[in-house]
Design brief:
The chain is mainly β. The protein is built from no helices and eight strands.
C-alpha cells in the first residue's frame, strides 16, 4: 500500500523571521465600536545589509476574509540592524479583535516574501449611556 503525501504547515513563533523581526505592535487595550484605532508596528532588519521591508495587517474577529489594516506607507528600505515604525489605522468593529501584524522582505527574485507575524488583542469598550439612566416618557391621550 502506497503512502499518501501529507501537507505540512510550518508555524513560527513571533520573532522567528529570518530577515525581519516584528518587535512591537502598539494599539490601545480597548476601543469603542466605530472609532478609528491607531496601530504602530515596529519591524527590525535582522540582515547585514539594507533591504526592503513591508508591513501588512489584518483583524481577526469571526468574519472571513479578515479585514485589513490600512498602512498608508507600508514599505521602506532600511539599513542593517535598524528598526522602522509603520503607522496604520482601522475602524473598530462591534467586537473585540486580534490584530495580526505581518512583515515581508523584498527578495532578489523581485517579490515580497512573508517573514514574521505578531499579534495583539484590542477589547471592545463599553460605552455608558449616562444621559438615559433616568429616562421618563409621558404622553397625552388625544
Amino acid at each position: 500500500m502506497e503512502q499518501q503525501p501529507v501537507a505540512v504547515s510550518i508555524i513560527r513563533k513571533a520573532g522567528a523571521g529570518v530577515y525581519t523581526e516584528i518587535t512591537v505592535v502598539e494599539a490601545p487595550a480597548s476601543a469603542s465600536a466605530g472609532s478609528l484605532v491607531q496601530v504602530r508596528v515596529s519591524i527590525k532588519n535582522k540582515t547585514a545589509s539594507t533591504i526592503g521591508i513591508m508591513v501588512g495587517g489584518a483583524l481577526e474577529y469571526g468574519v472571513s476574509p479578515w479585514p485589513t489594516i490600512s498602512f498608508p506607507n507600508n514599505w521602506a528600505n532600511f539599513p542593517a540592524g535598524q528598526s522602522y515604525y509603520f503607522d496604520g489605522t482601522f475602524t473598530m468593529p462591534a467586537y473585540a479583535v486580534v490584530i495580526h501584524a505581518y512583515s515581508y522582505y523584498y527578495g532578489s527574485d523581485s517579490a515580497w516574501h512573508f517573514d514574521d507575524e505578531r499579534t495583539k488583542s484590542v477589547g471592545l469598550s463599553q460605552v455608558e449611556d449616562a444621559q438615559f439612566q433616568s429616562l421618563s416618557v409621558s404622553y397625552a391621550k388625544v
